[in-house]
Amino acid sequence: MIEISIIVPLYNEAIVYSRLVERLTAVISGLPFECEVILVNDGSSDNTASLIEETCKADNRFTGVLLSRNHGHQLAVTAGLSYVRGTKGAMIIDGDLQDPPELAAEFYKLLISGYDVIYAIRKNRKESFFKKLGYKLYYRLQKKISNYNIPIDSGDFSMLSRRVV
Q1: Phi, psi of 91 (to 5 degrees)
Q2: N or C: which end of the chain has fewer CB within 10 A?
Q3: Is-contact 54 20, C-beta < 8 A?
Q4: Quick one: CA dihedral 35, 105, 117, 67, positive or negative?
């Protein structure tokens, strides 16, 4: 029985794709419970879609979701969430490998201890100055206008309980 679904939204990630799949395969093979990986192609213009199809044919733990065009990161995540079969929950991780999939076991420990939402906070970003500035402004503005305290730089790297999914 699949306990955790790992959702990976992808947009033009062909350059890092093989390393991503290699690391995800190592992670899910080393976990003491069954996982699935949901690869969501968000209308990539490179060969990401064909790479996803090849991976899914080679390993039935991988499922591909191919969106017809680029809908944006959040809609790609939402599409992935609609395919979740994990009985305990789902992990969301970006495909650019800026977040380590190897933290899945640590996230899972927190999940089964009773947390509904577990997320990581990036200590540093491999982004341009302007993108980093945009993130900082976004999180600070969101904190001011929202009733929710979302930590700065928390990003999408997270695990959600089945109840939250």
Answers
A1: -110, 140
A2: N
A3: no
A4: negative
Q: CA 95 to CA 65: how far, in whole Å? A: 14
Domains defined for the chain, CATH in brackets: 2-122+153-161 (3.90.550.10)
Q: Using 50, 70 and 90 to split pLDDT, how confident is the model at 143?
A: low
pLDDT in tens, 57-88: 999 999 999 999 999 988 999 999 999 999 99
Q: What is the pLDDT of residues 7-30, one digit of tens each?
A: 999 999 999 999 999 999 999 999
Task: Give the integer Cα–Cα distance in Å for 154 and 44.
Answer: 25
Report the C-alpha gap between 22 and 28 in whole angstroms: 10
Half-sphere exposure of 25 (CA within 13 A, CB side): 12
Q: What global pTM score does this model have? A: 0.85
Gap between the Cα atoms of 20 and 52, Å rounded: 11
Q: Which two tokens stand for residue 99?
A: 């977040």
| Cα–Cα dist 147/77, whole Å | 23
Contact 56, 25 (CB under 8 A): no
